[in-house]
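**Protein record**
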Amino acid sequence: MQAADITTADVRWDLEFQVKLGATAGRFFAGLRDGVITATRCGGCDWVFVPPQSYCERCLTPADEWLELPPRGVVNAYTVVHIAPGGRKPPFVLATIRIQGADGLLLHHIGGVEIGADGGAVGLKIGDQVEAVWADERHGSILDIRHFEPVGR
């Protein structure tokens, strides 16, 4: 008997389920629902986390001081996504953003940026300031921020 040359199979999953968020993530998503970006500060080294964390990954101290941060930040790195298995239709820009007052990075979409003929983001640069554009209807998820948009465009 010879081995088969099958290397892929078509599979479709249509699942609905609930995920237990925990107190820290739940409070973060409740803030987004209310149009507020929240963070936690480490009691040991003062590192500010967005998204919030319960414990500091740097010094293992509770990060239990809650802060409200402005809905602005700076692009730390970005890429143009040309192939995506679901969700937003490509091409789109995905970036890590350092929210003002935070030390960590938030991964999110950048809107208001044209994709050029070369497939790159026209005019977007690392270090550009961006501001949250809130969804019209918010339900307590990361997509309550529709996207971030470069300031002044």
Observations:
- The helical segments are 22-33.
- Residues 74 and 129 are 4 Å apart (CA to CA).
- The chain has a mean pLDDT of 94.
- The chain is about 10% helix and 30% strand.
